[in-house]
């Protein structure tokens, strides 16, 4: 963690203490539990005992926080004995439990006090609370089990945020308000993209026709990109014998697997990842060094037993489609292949409108070699290859020590969306260990059997999660090529429906996705509806458009290019409210195709 982040975390953690002090002051008898800093803020857990608290109470709590802050001084931190700590917090069962656990683990016990609020804490606080803790805001309330254990008491968790300056706080609060408007769960309902059915279960999204179009367009683009770059697509089943995950050593190390099932007296499991299945493709026949890099890909559905409290819309699901690729390489090919893959990933970001990105390289924790497969030398070689590739492509990166998977280091690529929020998308993992687990070898120039390395690559990760990010990135207003409906045809009255149907047919023949609104509504209502559905273009048909139009032959409609000679007119409006006026249909189609081809 860099110095700036450490400073900010100290301030936010200090503000969690301030929140605890205010709530306890307003509600005598309440017990505060833990209050750490988190990304973009902090939280404090409370056992409210006989009291209740809601977001409506936030102004009162914030007011009390500001009043208490006036008398706060730099935090005084001191180490105390177990006996003293138990005495000081005898009335708080949560602090007592922590103290006893610390004592068993032979950890030192520290208390802190900014002047009028004693608390149990390991340290890391503000040196000038009056000045540094001014710019805070309480955000939300949630339930949280004590120590994350569903068998223990549900506590009340209050979330808040703090920034060093008012300008930073205001920007963050604006961003949060905008994020609420862009929430993919709300837009997913409003735009008819997907649903979560109680009958099917949490974390198992169903894509509605419009959402299925968007999903298909994403997958089609990824398939074409990969095929054009040498990947061969495979298909693998959704289940496998559990033994394959013992061989890969995921069993016992990967805690998101569903329980095994019995089939023909053998144990099978829903696949939580595609890797072991893809390894079977490599093992299908003897491989030569001449075949490497050997690249295979699949948009494969996997199943992960996420806790019900953690699933969220499309961002975290139990059935997810990974745009998986596995590339089997010689060590000498590592650098070139990493550069190649990272360039492809950049192309993907450009396609979907992400302009800023950076990397995080997840490394092993060398202090705990027992957590990882393979030798320290292999790990060092793999980690250096990732770092050198990022440096070569001038990708900014930071390192996450201890965040690697048990079989290899990886690069995660983060992008910024249109609100400036950061999302982790692509993952490139270098693996020297699974080839040994599965005895995957190739024959080199000297006729010797050699283990390959494997690059595990997900360019967008989960298709479901990527869709959620795109929905929020675009606020539901997808670019033309990705919009499920590209044109809404809006006849002004029933008299104009027949001509509207002809226009619809011609647009569809040019592969434009069209929707005709022939309901008995005013044109104003139809325009509002199409605008709310974020359809890029609206074609308005009335008496003037029909009067201006001429058709050379009644049979010419829908027959190849004949309609190009017809003078068919429409009025066009954009979802942004811009009136493009009367247009020739043929010119309009050329305009649409030009915009689409710009992306494709």
UniProtKB/TrEMBL annotation:
Coiled coil: none
Group of enzyme by EC: ligase
Aminoacyl-transfer RNA synthetases class-II family profile domain sequence ranges: 209-479
SUPFAM superfamilies hit by this protein: Class II aaRS ABD-related (SSF52954), Class II aaRS and biotin synthetases (SSF55681), ThrRS/AlaRS common domain (SSF55186)
Cofactor binding mode and count: Binds 1 zinc ion per subunit.
Entry's Gene Ontology BP terms: threonyl-tRNA aminoacylation
GO molecular function, one term: ATP binding
Principal localisation: cytoplasm
Catalytically driven reaction(s): tRNA(Thr) + L-threonine + ATP = L-threonyl-tRNA(Thr) + AMP + diphosphate + H(+)
Signal peptide: none
Residues reported in the UniProt entry to bind Zn(2+): 275, 326, 456
Pfam families associated with the record: HGTP_anticodon, tRNA-synt_2b
EC number from the UniProt entry: 6.1.1.3
PROSITE patterns: AA_TRNA_LIGASE_II
Keyword Zinc: yes
Annotated Gene Ontology cellular component terms: cytoplasm
Compartments, as annotated in UniProt: Cytoplasm
PANTHER family membership: THREONINE--TRNA LIGASE, CHLOROPLASTIC_MITOCHONDRIAL 2 (PTHR11451:SF44), THREONINE-TRNA LIGASE (PTHR11451)
Protein name, as recorded: Threonine--tRNA ligase
Underlying gene: thrS
């Amino acid at each position: 963690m860099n110095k700036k982040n450490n400073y900010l975390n100290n301030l936010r953690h200090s503000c969690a203490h301030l929140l605890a002090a205010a709530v306890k002051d307003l509600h005598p008898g309440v017990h505060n539990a833990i209050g750490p800093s988190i990304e973009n803020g902090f939280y404090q857990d409370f056992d409210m005992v006989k009291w209740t608290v809601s977001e409506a109470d936030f102004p009162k709590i914030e007011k009390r926080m500001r009043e208490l802050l006036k008398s706060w001084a730099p935090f005084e931190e001191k180490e105390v004995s177990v006996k003293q700590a138990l005495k000081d917090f005898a009335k708080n069962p949560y602090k007592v439990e922590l103290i006893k656990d610390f004592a068993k683990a032979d950890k030192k016990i520290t208390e802190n006090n900014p002047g009028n609020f004693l608390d149990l804490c390991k340290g890391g606080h503000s040196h000038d609370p009056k000045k540094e803790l001014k710019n805070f805001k309480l955000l939300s309330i949630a339930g949280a089990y004590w120590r994350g254990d569903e068998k223990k008491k549900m506590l009340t968790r209050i979330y808040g945020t703090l920034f060093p300056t008012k300008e930073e706080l205001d920007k963050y609060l604006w961003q949060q308000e905008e994020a609420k408007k862009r929430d993919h769960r709300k837009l997913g309902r409003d735009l008819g993209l997907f649903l979560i059915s109680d009958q099917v279960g949490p974390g198992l999204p169903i894509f509605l026709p419009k959402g299925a179009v968007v999903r298909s367009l994403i997958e089609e683009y990824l398939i074409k990109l990969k095929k054009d770059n040498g990947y061969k697509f495979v298909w693998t089943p959704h289940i496998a014998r559990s033994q394959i995950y013992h061989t890969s050593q995921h069993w016992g190390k990967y805690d998101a697997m569903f329980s095994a099932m019995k089939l023909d007296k053998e144990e099978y499991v829903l696949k939580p990842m595609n890797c072991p299945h893809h390894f079977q493709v490599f093992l299908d026949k003897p491989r030569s060094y001449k075949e490497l890099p050997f690249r295979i890909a699949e948009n494969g559905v996997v199943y992960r037993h996420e806790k019900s409290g953690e699933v969220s819309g499309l961002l975290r699901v139990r059935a997810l489609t990974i745009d998986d690729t596995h590339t089997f390489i010689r060590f000498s090919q590592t650098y070139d292949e990493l550069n190649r893959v990272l360039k492809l990933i950049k192309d993907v970001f450009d396609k979907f409108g992400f302009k800023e990105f950076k990397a995080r390289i997840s490394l092993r924790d060398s202090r705990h070699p027992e957590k990882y497969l393979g030798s320290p030398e292999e790990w060092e070689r793999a980690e250096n290859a990732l770092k050198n590739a990022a440096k070569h492509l001038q990708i900014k990166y930071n390192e996450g020590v201890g965040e690697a998977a048990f079989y290899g280091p990886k690069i995660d690529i983060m992008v910024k969306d249109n609100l400036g929020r950061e999302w982790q998308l692509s993952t490139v993992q270098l693996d020297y260990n699974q080839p040994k687990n599965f005895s995957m070898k190739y024959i080199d120039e000297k006729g010797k059997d050699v283990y390959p390395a494997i690059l595990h690559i997900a360019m967008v990760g989960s298709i479901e999660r990527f869709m959620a990010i795109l929905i929020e990135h675009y606020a539901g207003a997808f670019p033309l090529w990705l919009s499920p409906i590209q044109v809404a045809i809006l006849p002004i009255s029933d008299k104009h429906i027949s001509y509207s149907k002809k226009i619809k047919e011609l647009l569809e023949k040019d592969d434009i996705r069209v929707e005709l609104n022939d309901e008995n509504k005013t044109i104003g209502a139809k325009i509002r509806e199409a605008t709310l559905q974020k359809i890029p273009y609206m074609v308005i048909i009335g008496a003037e458009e029909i009067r201006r139009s001429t058709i050379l032959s009644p049979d010419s409609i829908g027959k190849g290019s004949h309609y190009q000679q017809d003078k068919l007119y429409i009025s066009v409006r954009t979802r942004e409210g811009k009136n493009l006026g009367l247009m020739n249909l043929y010119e309009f189609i050329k305009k649409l195709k030009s915009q689409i081809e710009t992306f494709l």
